[in-house]
Amino acid sequence: MTLFGISILVVFIWNIMVLAAYAADKRKAIAHAWRTPEKTLLTMAVIFGGYGALLGGLVWHHKTKKWYFWLAWLIGIILVNMLFSILRILHSTNKI
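RESULT FIELD:
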């Protein structure tokens, strides 16, 4: 498997984990249980987890009214797209 393929797989798995974290936090919110800190959810989104975080926010209506979550989701999505663009360019020029 190429570095590009491995990167796609790793980012996909990470976004599934971020999606699960948002689902778990929503369940905890409903149950009035201990919650995942917002800083953790934001960090997960920014570090290449924007797609999973956005999906989790929209599916479970979780944190969608807070502007800074939308910003973190957007930054995470942009970073993933930039990573894949760079890897695609390097792969097409046989640099990796």
